C-alpha cells in the first residue's frame, strides 16, 4: 500500500473510532456499511472528515465505486495526487 | 373508554393554539449566515449546503433576530434568552388556545408544560400563571426531556388525568426554541443537520374531561407508549458547558421502519380497529426520512401525511410542538367528520414512541 494510502487509512481509523465511536479494528478489506456498520450519517461524517483533512472534494459519483475501507483510501489518495480543477470562484485571488 | 358506571370518560380536545416567533429566516438566508462559520473548519461547503437543503425545510421562525445569535456564547446567555422568549410565546399561544376554546385562565385546572430546549425553575407554567392569573389551586406538571415525543405524550398524560377528573380542564403547552440550543462552535455533521432541520414554535392543546360543561371536539379514546430498549444514543443531548449539544444518529428512520407498523397494528387491534379504519394520521414532522418511513411502514397513500409534510416545509421540525401543529390543522379542517378515527403519533429520545387514538 502506497504511503499516501496508509496516511488515509490512519485518518479513516481516527474518524471512525473518535467521531463515530467504532470499537473494533479497521482493515482495508472491511465493507464500510456491512462491517463498520456505517449508516448514511456515518458515511457523511467520514467523507467530510477526509475532505477536511486532505482538502479534497468527494462526490456522489465517487461513492459509486467505493465499497470497502481500502476502496475509500485508494480514492482519496488518488484525489490528493490529482486534485480536480478548482471551481471558478476559488481561482480568484 | 368506559368507566365502571358505563359512561364514556374519553376527554375532548377542544382547541389547539399555535404560535411562531416573529423573526423569520429562509433556508438560504440561514445557509448564508452559517457559511462563514462552517468555513472555519470544513473544506467542502457545498456538501454542507446540500445537507441543509436535503431536510426540505423552506425556512424557520426564530426566537431572536438572526444577527442576535452570534453574541450568545454561554449556557446562561442562551437559557436566559430562552426563558424570556418561552414565556412570551407561551403566553401568546395559551391566550390564543383559550380564546378558541371559549375559556378563561380561571377555568384551567391542570397545566402540563413540555419542553426540551431550555430549563427554568420556577418552570415556565408558573411564570405564565403570574401573567395570566390561573387559579391558586391549578396543578402543574412540567415535563422536560421527552423531546419530540412530548407533544403526543403530553396529550396522552393529560387525557389520563382527565379520566380521573372528568370535570376538569387541562392544557398541554409545548414551547420549543430549538434555535437557542444551537452550539455554533459545534461544527459536527449531526449539529449541522440539526441546525438545518429544527425551528422554533409553541402549541397549546386544550383538553376537557368528559363531564366538563360544554366539552366538545375529537375525543382521546386511548394512548399507548412504546419504549425501545438500549437506544439511548439514538437522540438526545450531551449537556456541555455551553448548553445542549445534540446527539443525533441516522437510526431513527430505521427504528420507525422496524417497529411502528407492529406498534400501531397492536394498538389498533386492542380497540377492534385496523389501519384502514383510520381517516386522519397526525404524524410528528421528524424530517423527510422519518415521514417517508412512516408512509412506507404503515403503507399510507401519498397524500395521507400531507399536513405533516407541509408543516415541515413551512416551519421545520418544532420538536414536541410539531405534532400539535399538525393536530391543530387537522381539528380545523373541514375534512374531519363526526365518527372519523385518527391516530396521532410521535417519537423521541429514549428512544420511544407515543400513539394516541382519536375519534371525532
TrEMBL record, chain A:
<dbReference type="InterPro" id="IPR036736">
    <property type="entry name" value="ACP-like_sf"/>
</dbReference>
<dbReference type="InterPro" id="IPR009081">
    <property type="entry name" value="PP-bd_ACP"/>
</dbReference>
<protein>
    <submittedName>
        <fullName>Acyl carrier protein</fullName>
    </submittedName>
</protein>
<feature type="domain" description="Carrier">
    <location>
        <begin position="1"/>
        <end position="80"/>
    </location>
</feature>
<dbReference type="Pfam" id="PF00550">
    <property type="entry name" value="PP-binding"/>
</dbReference>
Automatic annotation (TrEMBL), chain B:
<keyword id="KW-0012">Acyltransferase</keyword>
<comment type="similarity">
    <text>Belongs to the thiolase-like superfamily. Chalcone/stilbene synthases family.</text>
</comment>
<protein>
    <submittedName>
        <fullName>Type III polyketide synthase</fullName>
    </submittedName>
</protein>
<dbReference type="InterPro" id="IPR001099">
    <property type="entry name" value="Chalcone/stilbene_synt_N"/>
</dbReference>
<keyword id="KW-0808">Transferase</keyword>
<dbReference type="InterPro" id="IPR011141">
    <property type="entry name" value="Polyketide_synthase_type-III"/>
</dbReference>
<feature type="active site" description="Acyl-thioester intermediate">
    <location>
        <position position="148"/>
    </location>
</feature>
<feature type="domain" description="Chalcone/stilbene synthase N-terminal">
    <location>
        <begin position="13"/>
        <end position="207"/>
    </location>
</feature>
<dbReference type="Pfam" id="PF02797">
    <property type="entry name" value="Chal_sti_synt_C"/>
</dbReference>
<dbReference type="InterPro" id="IPR012328">
    <property type="entry name" value="Chalcone/stilbene_synt_C"/>
</dbReference>
<feature type="domain" description="Chalcone/stilbene synthase C-terminal">
    <location>
        <begin position="221"/>
        <end position="359"/>
    </location>
</feature>
<dbReference type="GO" id="GO:0016747">
    <property type="term" value="F:acyltransferase activity, transferring groups other than amino-acyl groups"/>
</dbReference>
<dbReference type="GO" id="GO:0030639">
    <property type="term" value="P:polyketide biosynthetic process"/>
</dbReference>
<dbReference type="Pfam" id="PF00195">
    <property type="entry name" value="Chal_sti_synt_N"/>
</dbReference>
<dbReference type="InterPro" id="IPR016039">
    <property type="entry name" value="Thiolase-like"/>
</dbReference>
Amino acid at each position: 500500500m502506497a504511503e499516501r494510502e496508509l496516511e488515509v487509512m490512519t485518518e479513516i481509523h481516527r474518524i471512525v473510532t473518535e467521531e463515530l465511536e467504532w470499537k473494533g479494528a479497521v482493515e482495508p478489506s472491511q465493507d464500510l456499511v456491512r462491517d463498520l456498520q456505517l449508516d448514511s450519517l456515518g458515511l457523511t461524517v467520514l467523507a467530510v472528515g477526509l475532505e477536511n483533512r486532505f482538502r479534497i472534494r468527494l462526490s456522489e459519483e465517487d461513492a459509486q465505486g467505493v465499497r470497502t475501507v481500502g476502496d475509500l483510501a485508494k480514492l482519496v489518495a488518488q484525489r490528493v495526487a490529482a486534485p480536480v480543477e478548482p471551481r471558478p470562484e476559488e481561482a480568484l485571488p | 373508554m368506559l368507566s365502571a358506571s358505563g359512561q364514556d370518560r374519553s376527554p375532548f380536545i377542544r382547541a389547539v393554539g399555535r404560535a411562531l416567533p416573529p423573526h423569520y429566516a429562509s433556508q438560504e438566508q440561514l445557509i448564508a449566515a452559517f457559511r462563514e462559520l462552517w468555513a472555519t473548519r470544513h473544506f467542502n461547503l457545498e456538501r454542507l449546503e446540500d445537507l441543509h437543503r436535503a431536510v426540505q425545510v423552506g425556512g424557520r421562525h426564530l426566537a431572536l433576530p438572526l444577527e442576535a445569535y452570534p453574541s450568545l456564547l454561554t449556557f446562561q446567555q442562551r437559557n436566559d434568552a430562552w426563558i424570556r422568549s418561552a414565556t412570551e410565546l407561551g403566553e401568546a399561544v395559551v391566550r390564543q388556545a383559550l380564546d378558541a376554546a371559549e375559556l378563561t385562565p380561571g377555568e384551567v385546572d391542570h397545566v402540563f408544560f413540555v419542553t426540551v430546549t431550555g430549563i427554568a425553575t420556577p418552570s415556565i407554567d408558573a411564570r405564565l400563571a403570574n401573567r395570566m392569573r390561573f387559579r391558586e389551586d391549578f396543578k402543574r406538571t412540567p415535563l422536560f426531556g421527552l423531546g419530540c415525543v412530548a407533544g403526543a405524550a403530553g396529550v396522552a398524560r393529560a387525557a389520563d388525568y382527565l379520566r380521573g377528573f372528568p370535570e376538569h380542564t387541562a392544557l398541554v403547552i409545548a414551547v420549543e426554541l430549538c434555535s437557542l440550543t444551537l452550539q455554533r462552535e459545534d461544527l459536527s455533521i449531526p449539529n449541522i443537520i440539526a441546525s438545518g432541520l429544527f425551528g422554533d414554535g409553541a402549541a397549546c392543546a386544550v383538553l376537557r374531561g368528559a363531564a366538563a360543561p360544554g366539552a366538545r371536539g375529537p375525543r382521546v379514546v386511548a394512548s399507548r407508549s412504546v419504549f425501545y430498549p438500549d437506544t439511548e444514543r439514538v437522540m438526545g443531548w450531551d449537556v456541555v458547558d455551553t448548553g445542549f449539544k445534540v446527539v443525533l444518529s441516522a437510526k431513527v428512520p430505521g427504528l420507525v421502519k422496524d417497529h411502528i407498523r407492529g406498534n400501531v397494528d397492536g394498538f389498533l387491534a386492542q380497540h377492534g380497529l385496523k389501519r384502514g379504519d383510520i381517516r386522519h394520521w397526525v404524524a410528528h414532522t421528524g424530517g423527510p426520512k422519518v415521514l417517508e418511513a412512516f408512509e412506507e411502514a404503515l403503507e399510507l397513500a401519498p397524500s395521507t401525511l400531507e399536513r405533516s409534510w407541509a408543516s415541515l416545509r413551512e416551519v421545520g421540525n418544532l420538536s414536541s410542538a410539531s405534532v400539535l401543529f399538525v393536530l391543530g390543522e387537522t381539528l380545523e379542517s373541514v375534512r374531519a367528520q363526526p365518527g372519523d378515527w385518527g391516530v396521532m403519533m410521535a417519537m423521541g429520545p429514549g428512544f420511544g414512541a407515543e400513539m394516541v387514538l382519536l375519534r371525532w
